[in-house]
Design brief:
single chain, Arc Repressor Mutant, subunit A, Four Helix Bundle (Hemerythrin (Met), subunit A), 11 helices
Length: 272
């Protein structure tokens, strides 16, 4: 069956054979407008077109593959804030039933990447906005407890991994990647926490910050990104000074929320 654009082309070709030149020009202009509208509708109907699927997806891997594909597309901006994610479209794209799709969407919702909106279903969540102070207050409570549980159990491999992420942040020139390295550094310090639900909540906060930094860090104009806070956290974790490490984390997050709040205030002031 011909596409709408092809059908429009064929119809207009027949009509232009019998009409005058001025009418022909009008038809050509109308033709372009119709084609543009068809193209726009096609784009709007395919928000998942940026996601590539390489071959059939095994049933036992479907949930993980879908979750990872959507997470990457959200984090790098291919699925912008407010994009509605349809279960049927995802199931068709990956060639699976809706069950693994629903499971993947639930996981992404728990990570704060999706919100469920009435009449729209799953929608890509907004970036950090005016409630950033509340978000960081909650992060401090969660991450402080994660540190208390994890620091006494960190081994040399954990500490070496955290140190590597610090070095990578100092060397990275692509600021869109710094948020990911920052998340990985903090996760290296928290990963030995025994409460897995706590870790899931911590990860959701870190992912929210990662998304914000990916799209805003360059515009924040913070200058060279010193890693003094992270080095202090690592030094205290290595020494197993748990409460001192928690106190330093509080100062670190306080500085972060101050920088973000100032940036959001400047951005608001520039808006008409």
């Amino acid at each position: 069956m011909d596409s709408p654009v092809v059908t429009v082309n064929l119809l207009l070709q027949d009509l232009t054979r019998i009409w005058s030149v001025p009418t022909f020009i009008w038809i050509q202009t109308s033709k372009l407008n119709v084609i543009r509208r068809c193209a726009n509708v096609a784009v709007k109907r395919n928000p998942l077109s940026s996601i590539e699927v390489h071959g059939p997806v095994a049933a036992h891997q479907a949930r993980a593959v879908i979750e990872e594909s959507l997470r990457n597309a959200i984090l790098d901006g291919r699925l912008p804030c407010g994009t509605a994610i349809r279960q049927e479209a995802l199931a068709d794209l990956f060639g699976v039933s809706r069950m693994p799709v629903r499971e993947a969407l639930r996981q992404l919702e728990s990570q704060g990447l999706l919100h469920v909106v009435q009449y729209k279903g799953a929608v890509v969540a907004p970036l950090i906005e005016d409630n950033s102070l509340e978000s960081y207050e909650l992060r401090l409570l969660l991450e402080a407890e994660a540190l208390r549980q994890s620091v006494p159990l960190l081994d040399d491999q954990d500490l070496a991994s955290a140190s590597g992420f610090i070095e990578a942040m100092e060397a990275e020139t692509d600021l869109s990647k710094v948020g990911t390295l920052n998340r990985q550094f903090h996760q290296a310090l928290y990963n030995k926490a025994s409460n897995k639900k706590l870790l899931a909540l911590v990860d959701a906060g870190l992912i929210e910050e990662e998304r914000f930094l990916r799209f805003n860090l360059e515009q924040m104009n913070l200058g060279p990104l010193a890693q003094d806070d992270h080095r202090t956290l690592l030094r205290l974790a290595r020494a197993k000074e748990v409460e001192a490490c928690v106190a330093e984390l509080g100062l670190h997050l306080q500085r972060a929320v101050s920088a973000i709040t100032e940036y959001l205030d400047r951005r608001k002031a520039k808006q008409p």
